[in-house]
Amino acid sequence: MNYLVIHINSYFITNALHGELIENLDKKGLKQSVFVPVAQAELINKNLPYGLHNGTITYKNCFSTFHKYLWPVKMLKIWMEFKKFYQKQPSSIIHAHTLIVNGLIAWWAFKKWGTPYLVTVRNSDLNVFLKYLPVFRAVGLKILNASSGVIMVSPIYLEKHLTSYYPKAKYPDIYKKVVVIPNGISDFWHRNLSEKTKLQEVKTIVFSGQLKKNKNLDSLIKACTLLVNNGFKLKLKVLGDGPQFAHFRKRKYELEIEFYGHLDNKDQILDKLRQSDILVVPSFVETFGLVYPEAMSQGLPVIYSRNQGFDGFFPDGYVGYAIDPKSPKEIAEKIQLIFSDYSRLSSNALEASKVFSWDRTTENIMQLYELVLKQKQ
């Protein structure tokens, strides 16, 4: 592959999946250079992937936390650093990993050097910038129109969210460029697939995620309490910590709840999932949620929020159910539905988890890169 891809990724420090993407593209021999703008010097080299053979990752402390209140200044500071970065290693293609922040830099680069770019649209774009700040809809439209390709990590964000800001009938040219490419899960999960044959006597629900308002553990606890009051033998495992950890730990409950805090070790997480029957994460907003296919790889049916990141990959009732995260009653009803059809849903979940592989994801992304480069010729 005789071309270089520059990634612009301001979220590289927040989630290990960005590093996994770069590592798996590197395994396929892709030449890459990743530009990561950060607000604090201590964030430099956070989430740095190891063992790259065909790429480099450059962190630049080019703005401060204060500049989030002066967004145009922040963007200009990032642009000034990116220009220096780009001029040292001009690329064949740029991949911006968000629509607004990273996409704006890619658009400016396209205007200055003519370098084609792809943009990945994420939760922060749809549920913050475009939703609450209408001025960014005009900015986003310019970025989308000038892009050579648009990646959505979830079908629901394409069909329900992007179309609400840019209707297909009005902007058909945008949708000709859109492809849905989900994130992959680590090969660890594919190497350790596990089949479940039946429910445990004490049915076990597992929640995995940060304990903060958006993850909405409170609705799940209320749903489980409804089930216990209706005679179900039930317990809840909570994996994760966060700002609400102490709050939830000190409360009294009508069911058994085990709090494990943050688990770094995949083997520990694997063990807790295998001890559980159903994964429920009723987030209010979510881009995708790798925890769902990870749990599915262990035969767990899943419950996820309607019109959020995981919804739309499979028909409702195939690997689990979508719910209204504000309704503990509906969450409890869907848990009961899974109990009544557990073997089928568990088998479907295990098989469906194989869709989410980094090998498939990176193949699809590289095909998109090569298509863009052919169109440029």
What do you see in this structure?
This protein has 377 residues and is of the alpha/beta class. The chain has two domains: 201 residues, Glycogen Phosphorylase B (Rossmann fold); 168 residues, Glycogen Phosphorylase B (Rossmann fold), CATH 3.40.50.2000. 43% of the residues lie in helices and 17% in strands. It has 15 helices and 13 strands. Strands 3-2-1-4-5-6-7 form a seven-stranded parallel sheet, sandwiched between helices. It has a six-stranded parallel sheet with strand order 10-9-8-11-12-13, sandwiched between helices. Helix 1 crosses helix 15, helix 2 packs across helix 3 and helix 3 crosses helix 5. The longest helix is centred in the C-terminal third of the chain and has 19 residues. The radius of gyration is 22 Å and the shape is globular. The two termini are 16 Å apart.
The major beta sheet can be summarized as: 7 strands, parallel
Structural class computed from helices and strand pairing: alpha/beta
- Fraction of residues in helix: 40-55%
CATH H-level homologous superfamily name of the largest domain = Glycogen Phosphorylase B
**Total count of domains:** 2
Poorly predicted ranges: none
- C-alpha termini separation: 16 Å
Instruction: Tell me the CATH architecture of the largest domain.
Output: 3-Layer(aba) Sandwich
The backbone outline, from C-alpha atoms, is globular
Mean of all residue-level pLDDT scores: 92
Strand order of the largest sheet: 3-2-1-4-5-6-7
